[in-house]
Each structure stands twice: as structure tokens, then as C-alpha cells.
Amino acid sequence: MFTFIARRLGLLIPTFFGITLLTFSLIRLIPGDPVEVMMGERRVDPQMHAEALERLGLNKPLYEQYLNYIGDLAQGNLGESLRTRESVWHEFLTLFPATLELSLAALLFAGTLGLLAGVIAALKRGSLFDHGVMGISLAGYSMPIFWWGLLLIMFFSVGLGWTPVSGRIDLLYDIEPKTGFMLIDTLLSDEEGAFVDALRHLILPAIVLGTIPLAVIARMTRSAMLEVLREDYVRTARAKGLSPARVIFVHGLRNAMIPVLTVFGLQIGALLAGAVLTETIFSWPGIGKWLIESIGARDYPVVQNGILLIACLVILVNFVVDILYGLANPRIRHQR
Amino acid sequence: MSLLNIKNLSVRFGDANAVPVVDGLDLNVNKGEVLAIVGESGSGKSVTMMALMGLIDAPGIIKADALTFDGSDMLTLKGRARRKIIGKDLAMVFQDPMTALNPSYTVGFQIEEVIRQHLGLSGKAARQRALELLERVEIPGAASRLNAYPHQLSGGMSQRVAIAMAIAGEPKLLIADEPTTALDVTIQAQIMDLLLDLQRDRDMALVLITHDLAVVAETANRVCVMYAGQAVEVGQVPALFDAPAHPYTEALLAAIPEHSQGARRLATLPGIVPGRYDRPQGCLLSPRCPYVQQKCRDVRPTLDPSALGEVRCFFPLNQPSHANQEPAR
Amino acid sequence: MTTSTSSPAPVADPSTLYPSPLKEFWQHFARNKGAVAGLLFMLVIVFCALFAPWVAPHHPSEQFRDFLLTPPAWLEGGQSQFLLGTDELGRDLLSRLIHGARLSLLIGLASVVMSLIPGIFLGLLGGFFPRLLGPTIMRVMDVMLALPSLLLAVAIVAILGPGLINTVIAIAVVSLPSYVRLTRAAVMGELNRDYVTAARLAGAGLFRLMFVTVLPNCMAPLIVQATLSFSSAILDAAALGFLGLGVQPPTPEWGTMLASARDYIERAWWVVSLPGLTILLSVLAINLMGDGLRDALDPKLKNAV
């Protein structure tokens, strides 16, 4: 198991350096003078221009710039935002829990519902329910989620008034960010009704963000389950006189989970991309909204290292999924 | 009173008009006996036993006048009551051990599962029982094998595990569905010896599904020969080998290398088993039978008592009363 | 099975007895009802896009100042000249959607072509040079795959600035890795086949081997992938437009239309619903077609029924 993890870890290193190269080039590929682009409408005198170049280290040869960049990263220095003068790392840390909370809620929604729908569709193959699940999941897979979000807001928030339109919590409440997870923070605070309010804020964004993963997981679970249920070991399990539930879940689903888990992992990247859209629609103060706003404001240090951080996050999550995959599948784990 | 009693069993896939895979099968298994079911692929051997185990799913349709095991009606028994018998008193070992074990769980887990389900043991006691079973099926280093995953075992080892799982509930009847077909020749005899040893040891009945007549000759008390979903001959083992009454049995015996001393080529039966669309009106073997008469083509024979057992043929071979056949010994 | 002997059997070249590959493909494709429905819908969209100035009742940018936010014709207050209603500037929604189809199809087509051709080329190189060049190309593609596609597109647009052409470039770059991987995998599979060895022994040059011998046998998965990335190109372009990073208003792009419609969510459901519905239906239609194509082209599934 240790060698398995070490081997996977080794594969990450070139990818990581590739990504630093990408984010490094990002700021240098901007057409025109980078300082002028960053300063935007402001007038730039030659003195300031030179200072800015110096500060950004853009006046040195490229390889030296890259080495400096890597050196900075190694020291945990990700630069500071042009807008807020805050360190990029600090901003990321404050905003990331919001995105994480939203993503986890979306995954929970997509995972439980997708697995359930997929398993039932497989067990009732060819039934009306099966066709329904397949049809809905194809539509979900093709869904422009930014529109889906607006539609849900229009129906549930504007029309029925069930859920709030935007944000993580009502302005009435003053919640101290202890963990960064609003659901936990509201529970820790003594504000009455804050938890329920936070939950109501979370529901629609989580559904919107979870829609595409839900569709993918439901389809994948169904096909994996259909395949597994034909396997000899499922017949063996039935011949042991085990209950149908035990045959389906312990012997069937456990093995069907292996391909589903892979797809689940692939969805994490898509989830972060979806978070950009979802956070924009619902004014959810997470890293997706942060990134888009920074692009709008030409806050290049944030854009550059924000993308780097998100990419590292995706790599890390995929790595964890890889490990889980090994845990779920003894054959992979024991490979040399 | 026999342990297993099957009367007029038929299994179809699709609608009620589909050609039956098993067609009007009668079969008895007595306590502690070894019954072999032989026949070529697709003759309905496995399907019969799968029907008994309740492993036939829609669109399969099972019909029978009687399907009783140890006093329980397996045709109507459902749910929990049925699962108390399946895997405990009635167990099965399958053909391909490499796919019959769940790749995600350890050997110990899969054996203990049966023990927990049927014997009510748990924890250390179940573990201990699983270890004893592994030792009983002669797995070397049984204690360490408990934590092994199926992909770490060889085919023969996997089949031993599957047998351990099957005998965990102390079955009264063990069905072994071609238990050695997927194994190396060198391992086959070992597995057969193990099964017979267990059978004698526990006085359990053993139904051995096979197409290896040599194995049948060495192991079984009785044999049932199946052709195209029907039992064509049932008889005691040494007698049936010496004087087969059905032409199909005779052809099967002639195809054993040991029986064809001196012949340059093994005897074969021309033609193939009838399929869905070319099922003959009369005897199912009539298109291939070397002794065929007009009556055979027109009317389908029934399974009737013969000199040494039961046979489904109008003109059985080796019968003492028949003047135009070979004289009986 | 036997044919009647009364009519003389025509002596024909046996190859003409088999349906042409195109006809055989169509028979397989037509079996999938969803795929045919998707194809029909796409034909309508393509027709609208090609003949937009003649199909659309109004000019997409013409502002009817007296008819701001008019509801669709079948609703109370609707006008028969504005079948699907008007937007906040009094522009006819139907005309804008029809002209928007032009843009979406253009972006989809251009980005597919711009990623398919270099993707195939890189994939062929990767497959034919497995020592150094191949792994290098694949590592670069891995880096690109580490970023979610929309984020990478956002990053590229952040560098290049918003706009139609930059949207196309961003989407083309984003979909490049999947073509490279797919082509390389297919090429690696084909290279071991005897017909390639035979062509090599016959003295075929590298380019001939690549493009004439091997490539045609790798096309089936590439065609399917092209269809699927066509649909995700439309989705991504709309998403970029929605984020304000794609095609800029007043150009009638579906995603951009949605972005400006956000403010009228409480008053005019049609300006929000209809552009999104158009996106959904187009993407769904293409995905259905893609499923049908895969079933019809995949030799493993073909003849399996």
C-alpha cells in the first residue's frame, strides 16, 4: 500500500511543474505591456512603470523569473492582490471553505441520489422508472447550469418565496467565522434560526452544482450495476441464502462502486468549474466568484495564483480518489 | 422418502410457448447418495439445479408437479423461509471458481458470511469455524489464507474455498456444477477426491453435474443422462455402463477414449442437438439416432422403467426380452 | 433458406449485394430513435442558422421602443409580430435566438476544427514516436487536463481578453487534450496490426503510414468525440458569454443574452427561460446524436445485437 501511494505521488511532480509553467506564462502572454494592462485606466509615469516592473520581477531574464517564481512558491509566497493588498493565500483560505461547503453539499446530493437512482434503475431495468432516470440524466448531462440556476431562482425564490436568492446567510445574523463552514459556524453560534437560514441558502446552489454530477453518477451506477449483477459471484452470494439487500449492496454495489468512484473523481474537476458559474449566479462568496471578479478587475496576481491553487486542488483530489480506488479494488492495490 | 423429489419440471425462457430448456424432468436424490447428471452443453443439467436453488430470474419460467427438498416445497417457498434452506441444507459449488468468489472481499469474510447467516455464530467463533472449514478442505496455511483476496489464489485453491463456503452450513445436499471443468487436469482429481471425501464423511447427498463419464464411473451411485432438456436414461452406475439402454447413452460411452480400444478414431454421433426451430415432432434424438424407426419420428417417447432403470426409448438396447436386439448378458 | 429456382439468379458482383458503408451506417443510426430526433432538431437549427436573415422576422438588433419586455404571443399582452416576446430593449427574442444559432454553431464548428486538426496531428506524432516525443506530448496534455475545461477557458480568455475569436481559441485549446489522447490510443492499437507492417514492408513513408494507412482506421472514436465536444463547445461558449467573458453584447449570443436577462428574472420569465431552453435542447440534440453515432460506428457494438 505504501509503495502504491509513493508511486502515485511521484507521478504528480511533473504535472505540478507543468502547471506552474502554465500559470507563469499566463501573466507573460498578455498582449501588450503587462504593467499598463494591470494598471488599466490609471496614468502610469515611467518611474512608476519601472518600479512596477521591478516589483513584479518582469525586468529579469525569463528563466530567472521562473526560478524566482518557483522560489516564491516554495516559500509559500503567492503574492498579493492588487485590489485589496491582501495576500493571495490569505484570501484563498478565507474564501475556500465556502466553495468547499457548497461542493460537499452538491456531492452529497449528487452521490446519494445518483447512487440510489442508478441502483433502482438497474434493478428495474426496462421499467418506466428506468427510462425516466435515463432520460432525465441525459437532460441533466446537457444542462447549461447557469440557466438551470436562474430557472430555480425564478421558480423557488421569486415565485414561491421558499428560498433566498443569494448569499450564504441573511444579513440579520452576525456569524463569527470559526471553521468557515456556515452550517457549522451557525450551530456554534447562539443566534436562533441561523442554522436553518444557512441551510436554506445552501439548498439551491447545491442542487444546481450537483445536477451534472448527479446525471453522470446515475448513468454510471446503472451501467456498472447491470454489469456486476450478471457476475458469477453475485450468483454465489444468492446461493448462500443471503438476503436480497445484502446481495445487492454488499456484493453488488461494492464492486459497482469501483468504476463509479473513478467517474466521481473525474467529476471533482468539473465541480470546481461548475462552482465558478454557480457562485456567480447565487453571489456565493467562494473562490469561483473571487476568480471571475479578479479577472474582471485585472487583478493578475490573484488570477495567476488562484488558478494555480485550484489546479493543485484538482490534482490533490484526483490523487485522493486514486488512493480510494486502490482501497476499493484489492487487485489494483496489490499491483507491483 | 427421497431427499430431493422433482416431478415433471420444465424451465422456459421467454413466454409460455418458448421451447423449454428443461422439459418434463423427473429426478430423485436419496439421502447420502451420489447422483451424476451427464449430458452435453445446453442439455439442461445446470438449469435444473439452478431452478432448484432459485437462481433463475425473469424471463425464466419454472413449472413442476413437484419440487420438494427435505419436505419443503421449493416451488412455492419464498423469501426468508427459503433462504433458511438455500446455502444451509442445500448448497452449490459452481463451475468457474475464479469468477465465483467476490474479488472485493477476503476469503475469510466470504466464508464467515455463510456461518453468520446460517449458524448464528459471530466474531471469534465465526472466524474459528471458517478456519476449521479451510483446514477441512485441505488448504495449506489456512490461517493466513483467511485474509487473502480471491485474486491471490490459484484456481484449485479458489475452488477449495468455494467448497468450504458451500459446506459451511452442513448441507444435506451439495450440488457441484462441473466443479473441475475450469481447472488444470492435475488439480481435477484432487478436487473430486475432496468432494467425495466430504460426501462420505458427512453422509450428505451429492449431485455431480458433469460431462466427464470417466469421473461418473468412478464416483457416482446413480446416473441421469440428459439430452435436449430431457432425462433419457436413469440407472445404477456399474450396470448402466455395461448395458446402456438408450442409444444416446451408448453413443456417449462410445466417445470415451478408454472404451474405444483399438479404434483409430473416436466414435461420434452425427448431427447436433436440436435448437429452437428444428425440434423434431417425435423422439428428440430421432434425427441423430442410428437405430431410428418410423415410430420414433412420429411419437415422442416417455421415460419408462427398463430392465436396469428408466429409459426414454421405444426400442431400448440391451433388454433381455427384445429378440431383435443384442442378447443381454 | 433455399431460393426458388424458377427465376434465374442474377450473376452479380458479390460486393454489390452488401449495402454501401454509408447505407449500413444509416440503418444502424436510424434504429436509435433519440439520435434521429436529435438529428432532426439539429437540421432545423442549422437551417435557421444558414438562412437567419430570411427566417428571422426582424433584425436581431432592431429596438422596438414601444414594445419593451412584451410577453410571447400566446400570453395576455402578447403581440403576434413578436412570437416569443421581446427583451428589455424591445428586440424580438425569436430573431435574436435564430441569429444566436449562427454564432453558437460557428463557435462550435470553428473550435472543433481548430482542435481536431492539431489534436490528430499531435496524437499521430505521440503514437508514432513512443520514445521521447510521445510521452512529452502526453505530459503536456496531462497538465492541461489537470485544470477543469471551463476554468482553463476562463484563464485563456483572461489573457486574451473577451470576444468571439478568443472564445473560439479558448475552447479549441481546452478540447485539444481529448483528441490527442484518443488519437494516440487508437494509433498505438493499430500500429501492431499486420496491415501496418505490410505497408511498412511495402516501403510506405512516414507520412503515408500516418495519414493514409493508420488514420482512417482511427476515425470512428474521433468522429464521436468531435460530436460530443461540439456540444460542450456550445455549452462552454454560452457559459463564457454568461460570465461576461465571451461574445460581448449586443451580439445575440445565447449565453450573453442570458446574462443580460438576469435582471428581469422577476418580471419577464421568457427572456430568461427561452435562451437557456434553446441551449439545453441544442446540446441535448447533439448528445443524442453522439450516442447514436457511437452505437453505429463502434465496431465492437456493431453486429452485436
Automatic annotation (TrEMBL), chain A:
The keyword Kinase is assigned to this record: no
PROSITE patterns per the UniProt record, alphabetical: ABC_TM1
InterPro entries from the xrefs?
BPD_transp_1_N (IPR045621), MetI-like (IPR000515), MetI-like_sf (IPR035906)
Residues passing through the membrane, by range: 9-30, 102-123, 144-163, 198-218, 256-277, 307-328
Q: Which residues form the ABC transmembrane type-1 domain?
A: 96-325
Q: Does the keyword Transmembrane apply?
A: yes
Under Gene Ontology molecular function, one entry of this record is: dipeptide transmembrane transporter activity
Q: Could you tell me where this protein is found in the cell?
A: Cell membrane
Q: Name one GO cellular component term.
A: plasma membrane
Q: Per the similarity annotation, which family is this?
A: Belongs to the binding-protein-dependent transport system permease family. OppBC subfamily.
* PANTHER family for the chain: DIPEPTIDE TRANSPORT SYSTEM PERMEASE PROTEIN DPPB-RELATED
Q: What is this protein called?
A: Peptide ABC transporter permease
Source species? Pseudomonas turukhanskensis
Lineage, uppermost ranks: Bacteria, Pseudomonadati, Pseudomonadota, Gammaproteobacteria, Pseudomonadales
UniProtKB/TrEMBL annotation, chain B:
One GO MF term attached to the UniProt entry: ATP binding
Q: What is its main location?
A: membrane
The listed locations are: Cell inner membrane
Q: Which reaction does it catalyse?
A: a dipeptide(out) + ATP + H2O = a dipeptide(in) + ADP + phosphate + H(+)
Q: What's an example Gene Ontology biological process for this entry? A: transmembrane transport
Show the GO cellular component annotation of the record: plasma membrane
Q: What does this protein do, in the record's words?
A: Part of the ABC transporter DppABCDF involved in the uptake of various di/tripeptides. Is also involved in the uptake of phaseolotoxin, a toxic tripeptide inhibiting the enzyme ornithine carbamoyltransferase. Responsible for energy coupling to the transport system.
For this entry, the protein name equals: ABC-type dipeptide transporter
Organism in which the protein naturally occurs: Pseudomonas turukhanskensis
Q: What is the lineage of its organism?
A: Bacteria, Pseudomonadati, Pseudomonadota, Gammaproteobacteria, Pseudomonadales
UniProtKB/TrEMBL annotation, chain C:
Compartments where found: Cell inner membrane; Cell membrane
Alphabetized SUPFAM superfamilies for the sequence: MetI-like (SSF161098)
Q: Please state which protein family the record places this protein in.
A: Belongs to the binding-protein-dependent transport system permease family. OppBC subfamily.
Cellular-component GO terms for this entry: plasma membrane
Ranges for domain ABC transmembrane type-1 come to: 101-290
User: What would you give as a GO molecular function for this chain, any one?
Assistant: dipeptide transmembrane transporter activity
Q: How does it sit in the membrane?
A: Multi-pass membrane protein
What is the species listed in this Swiss-Prot or TrEMBL entry?
Pseudomonas turukhanskensis
Biological process annotations from GO: protein transport
List membrane-spanning regions.
35-56, 103-129, 150-175, 195-215, 222-247, 267-290
InterPro entries per the UniProt record, alphabetical: BP-dependent_transpt_permease, MetI-like, MetI-like_sf, OppC_N
List the keywords (alphabetical).
Answer: Cell inner membrane, Cell membrane, Membrane, Peptide transport, Protein transport, Transmembrane, Transmembrane helix, Transport
Its protein name is Peptide ABC transporter permease
Say yes or no: keyword Transmembrane present: yes
Among CDD domains, the record links this protein to: TM_PBP2 (cd06261)
